[in-house]
Amino acid sequence: MTDHLLRALTVRQPWASLIVTGRKNVENRSWNTRYRGPLVIHAGLGIDKDGLTAHKSLLPDEVPHGCVLGVVDLLNVVRDSKSAWAEPGMYHWVLANPRALSRPLEASGKLGLWTPSPTLVHELQGEGVA
Q1: Is residue 127 part of a domain?
Q2: Whole-structure pTM over 0.85, yes or no?
Q3: Taking CA atoms, which of 14, 29, 61, 78 is between 20 and 30 Å from 35?
Q4: Number of domains in the chain
Q5: Which CATH number does the domain housing residue 52 bear?
Q6: No. of helices (H) and no. of strands (E), the chain
């Protein structure tokens, strides 16, 4: 895969872990994107404490942050997803084919949809997820 096709999204925990383990198939955003394809999931430094409490049974004992956890495919962005994860009034980013890394890769996140560095893309390719 060429790095110009790969995009990344920073997501707070526990949502990032739930996405890369295939438990959460929709990411809610207030904005749309035309991008479709592989999406690197970066666990941001922020943690949604209410979300962590509500979904503790679905998570490992510790949820990493400030790192890349894996890759999913962004299939579509809709407003009417029937997923249990879809929130009314939001854009529903429909996700599939989660590929969790064997170990988190330390990386800095960014706001919005961002382009991973060539070094990060190389590491993801070495892990077989990109």
Answers
A1: no
A2: yes
A3: 14
A4: 1
A5: 2.30.130.30
A6: 3, 6
